[in-house]
Amino acid sequence: MPVPAHVVLPKALTGVDARIVVALGNRFPMIEAHKVLAAYGCLAPRVITGQFDPTRHRAIWPSTGNYCRGGVAISRIMGCRGVAVLPEGMSQERFDWLEDWVVDESDIIRTPGTESNVKEIYDKCNELSADPANVIFNQFSEFGNHIVHYLATGTALQHVFDAMREREPALRLRAFVSATGSAGTIAAGDFLKERTGSLTVAVEALECPTLLYNGFGEHNIQGIGDKHVPLIHNVMATDVALAVSDRATDRLGVLFNTEAGRTYLARRRGVPRETLDALPALGLSSIANVLGAIKTAKYYGMGPDDVIVTVATDGAAMYHSERDLALAKYFGGTFDEVGAGEVFGEHLLGATTDHLLELTREDRDRIFNLGYFTWVEQQGVSIEEFRVRRDPAFWTDMRGIVADWDRLIEEFNARTGVLESL
What we know:
Layout: E1 6-9, H1 11-14, E2 19-24, H2 35-48, E3 58-62, H3 66-77, E4 81-87, H4 92-101, E5 108-111, H5 118-128, E6 134-136, H6 143-167, E7 172-179, H7 187-196, E8 199-205, H8 210-213, E9 240-244, H9 246-256, H10 259-267, H11 273-278, H12 284-300, E10 306-312, H13 320-331, H14 337-349, E11 356-358, H15 361-378, H16 383-387, H17 392-398, H18 401-416, H19 418-421
Parallel strand pairs: 2-10, 3-4, 3-6, 4-5, 7-8, 7-10, 8-9
Antiparallel strand pairs: 1-2, 9-11
Helix pairs in contact: 2-3, 2-6, 3-4, 6-7, 9-12, 9-13, 9-14, 10-14
């Protein structure tokens, strides 16, 4: 089996001895982001169980960008109508992509705000749900999102690590790092923890440190959400919460995606060509994951035999407009070697271990309880449904449904004649 596309970041870039391995989501088809996987994991079970009828239902995809793009793409290839709901302040590239893919321009619904305005997305979806033809696929509460990342992303990352360990048997998988976002991707941490004992590290924005400090605010790390704890986040299996600033991700986006920045990294820091070639695969949330991995490596004093795995949800292609805004905001529109050195020194070599918390049982309980206000008080989830997620057995038992899904998919394909047409 081919090893999934990834890059191992060298010490010349990260400043740490630990191997930081980044799986590249921009290799996924159609949307060049791995959220296409989450969309499929949510839509397919509804189709095969009869909860979604493509001939009469519309699939509503609430998101801050990539998940709704994945939903529109999956809807289209599965013969459904997909509607994207996302904040109006997201990157222009997201809207450009959507305009090329939706059936009608009215299938792009803009809500107020930016990355920090998830509640406004929920409010719009609650309004849309009044029409029985609309089926809401809320990635923050769709357990298919958790399951597909647990199995697919977890297996892919395990395969990358196993391939590395075949060459170097002394390697140890120490941690999986992921921005919380919808809490789909972080489910891969459960998979890896069960097989290797690795830590699961949750990353959020310092400007809105919900898990760390019960905080709120605004940030621009597009793709990681904030202000609430997703229903599908297995909080009790999370080991570390940490925060990185959107100032850092914005500025590093300029460093990684300008000629001056890349020249500095090559000539002054000795970053290898293969690493430079991979940097465009890192979008804003991906850079946040890398910074979280560096903080984790420094905090635990990890060495060259220690491996941290993370993911690049999408690439820089979704953020050229954001890069230009950051270039103007932080550098007056001109970025040179001096600016590159400052960014590298401050945000990579100078990465600190502040705003990082090893979670105790009490910390996990606190974070878990935060979800009450979103899901029980605002979104109408029953207190029984909310509480049961505290039990580890809930998560392990739920994953057993995959065998039933596989059987139903085979029956569905046979019934519709899909297999004969392939």
